[in-house]
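Exercise: predict the fold of this chain.
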Amino acid sequence: MIRLRYRFESLDVYARHLRLGDGLYLPLRPQPGSRVAIEVSWPESPDPVLLHGRIRKRTRHGSFVDLPPTWMVGPLGASRGDRRVPCDLVAEVKPFDGAPYLCRALDVSQRGVRLATGAFDAGLMGDRVAITLLVPDAMDIPSRIAWSGAREAGLELLETPPALVSFLAACDAQWEELSHDAGCLCSRTELRAG
């Protein structure tokens, strides 16, 4: 997975990157199909926005990333206290009154984990569940359901094991930093779709 922190001058400049073609424009040229996690921010953003996607196509000047429809800050964006780290982990969710099942952890922080779940039937908001993050040394962490949506769910971690803190620090050190350049392709008005 490619981890990229991309800093923009403003929300408008970020939005221009969404109007250049099919997906979010990046001035990088990774292989099509590559998974990418992009943390985008601009000076007035309350928190960085963490996006997950795949490289759709590569052009002479960069590439386009397919993103889910949730590419803007949500109403709870300003309430996030810990920076999330994108990951590619398998997680086992164990509801207290149901059978355990496996799903993918999309990102993790010291206080929570976001899961790609399909139909999430582990319980209701506030219910306690146990989660095992399958990293080199499996971590069993008590948690509660913070929210669930159509294909994702968020768990609040009730404990933060030291192994999780170490894992997050190792993952957080693997970001590539990129600041928006004034000579970027997005500044050419004839190329903008909207």
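Check your answer against the key: Residues 85-160 form a domain with the Thrombin, subunit H fold (CATH 2.40.10.220).
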